[in-house]
Amino acid sequence: MNGVVKPAHTAPDLAVIVKAALTEWDLMGADYHLVAERENRVFQVRHKNGTFALRLHRPGYRIDAELRSELSWMRMLSDQGLLVPTPQTTKNCQLLCTIGGFQIDCLNWLNGTPLGKTGHPITIENLSERILSIGRDIALLHHHSDAWAPDADFTRWHWNQNGLIGEQPVWGAFWKNPDLTASQRDLFLEAKAFANQRLSKYHTSLDYGLIHADLVRENILLGEQGTQFIDFDDGGYGYRLFELATLLSKLTDRDDFEQLKAALLNGYRQVRPIDTALLDLFMMIRALTYLGWIIPRLSEPGGTARNARFIATAGHWARKIIE
Q1: Per the database record, which ranges form the Aminoglycoside phosphotransferase domain (predicted)?
Q2: Which of the four pLDDT bands, split at 50, 70 and 90, describes residue 6?
């Protein structure tokens, strides 16, 4: 994302907005509380009819067509049996409404345990088996997305060559990260040029289509019924290897990384084939994107330390790939 801009609404303002939204979804009188406040404000809503996630989207970040596209995609995946949040319609059969300057939607609440959390070791038992199952479900997400014919007004951004390593990447110009030394910036510009050369040569043969694009540990929930994927905010069109690299990039510090990578790919290939010859290239590209993503977040608590980790990781992959 290109910045975190929070609207100037006080707590009483938000209470009025949330209560008005609950009326739109016929959830009057429900208990609610704020559970997340970053890109979007997310409220857990408890009502006699169920538990829901009410999302107040950051004003100015997405147009309505993009949000409706995300919701229609999620609904299709849910209809196909994937465990993803199911969009709920308002009393007027709408997936999205605008109140007080916020675009608002409502999803069913998924109960599950996150695969892990940033900065903490994964403690899930039988992790290889879990990762294999996750690989199957990622492949199913891609399979159903390829088989789907969205409406003509469907619009999401593209994690393509330009969106990843062009002059204006989706997540920002990573080579302009202010904490880079001159030698690091040169290294990452060299990595950018190398990746562009490789993708220009091979992009037409790569599997490309709708991807979640943010399957980090926090967005993968483990529940009684199976793997659940949440937070499709970054979803769009992209390389399927980029999808796999996103998850793998958060497992590289483990001693059993190669075993987990094999499990993920084996699970994926149980559903659909994928050529992984360029997987390491996408591991590097994924690492580079985080250098752009962090720029508007450097002032957040822990931002500097997080950036240092991102720089070290990107440097490792850049040297591994181009040297």
Answers
A1: 38-270
A2: very low
